[in-house]
Amino acid sequence: MTSVDSCLKKRDRSIDLLRFIALTGIVIVHIYPSEFWTQLRSFDVPLMVFLSGISYRLSGGNTLAYEKYCVKRFKRLVLPVWFFLPVYFLIYMAATHLLPPWKTVLSYYTLMTGWYVWIIRIFFVMALVAPFLAKELDKSSKRFFLGVSVLFLLLFEWYVNTRYSRFPGRTIVLTHFPYILVFALGYKIVDFQRKVIRGMMIVCMFVYLCISLFYINDGCGYLQTQLFKYPPQVYYLSYAMGCCLFLWLVRVKVFSFLSGLSLRLVDLIAFIGSHTIWIYLWHIPLVSMVKGIDSAIIRFSVVYILATIIVGCQTWLVEKLLPLVKDTKRQKNLRMIFIG
Question: Crossing angle of helices 44-58/176-188, nearest 10°?
Answer without folding.
Answer: 50
